[in-house]
Amino acid sequence: MLCAVAAVSPLAACGTSVQVSVPGQADGPMINIGVAVDEPGVSWYHEEGYSGLSVDVAKYVAEKIGYSNRQIVFHPMTMARRDAMLADGTIDFAMTSYAYEGGKDARAFTKELASRGGDVRYSGPYLIADDGLLVRADERKTIRGADDMRGRTVCVVEDDDVRGQLERRVDGVRWREESDFNKCVSALLAGESDAVAGSRPVLAGLRSEAGAAYADLVDAPFGRRGYAVATGGDRDEFVAQINMVLQDMIDDGTWDRITDDAERALGIGTDFALNPPTIVASRDES
Predict the structure, then answer these.
(1) CATH 3.40.190.10 domain range(s) in the chain
(2) Where does 18-129+226-266 sit in CATH, by number?
(3) Inter-residue contact 57 to 65 (CB < 8 Å)
(4) Chunked mean pLDDT (size 10), the chain, 286 residues
(5) CATH number belonging to domain 130-223
(6) 13 in Cβ contact with 1 (< 8 Å)
(7) What secondary structure letter does DSSP report for 278?
């Protein structure tokens, strides 16, 4: 599981695409990548630009398929807009996450998500994390886990799989949906909801943003999610290529460096019973 947190820089949402530029590198075809802007420590936008673990993975993937940093354009993306942006060609791939209970051997991930239907294809996951709850600090002793949310209001981001995860574990929850995590945190602190549900590493970053005196993480996680790369249309070869790149990232030590950087920056820990996932067993596997 990813857990705990250190301070993070202030989060600022961005409504326009941002090109990541590295002086001295040649221009060429651009690669358009959809990323979240409201997930501190994972994928977010602040004064220094886009950063976070998933952003680092996106840059690695882009480089390995032939694009320099100068050729990357990051597009702000919400979960609700993700599939539409893939379908209309606004983005070439999306850094995203989905409910996933398949364990460390993640080679069934693509098939599991493909069973949902639709025109989106999936590579990965490159990280498996727990879902959990963020509550007001003064409710920390009252809300100890998912069962305590019966009869209470939980805020979730639109189209986040976390709602289904929680619904399968407890009934009688009242739901509030918002377009992004910032609005969910505002509703929480205003007393309009009792908890925010989401990925624990993201919630940890949100807690830091709000301040530990105002918001806190519930220790008992529920459900898991896989962080993955989503592509649109019938692009099985592209999916296989990205799977190979993600496995290379694990095998060449880059995955360790990226997660180590996250640990130093945010104070998170990685559950090695689940990570790193096995994405491709051999170069003969597609």
Answers:
(1) 18-129+226-266, 130-223
(2) 3.40.190.10
(3) no
(4) 38 46 60 95 88 96 96 95 94 93 74 72 91 95 96 96 94 97 97 96 88 92 92 88 96 94 73 89 49
(5) 3.40.190.10
(6) no
(7) B
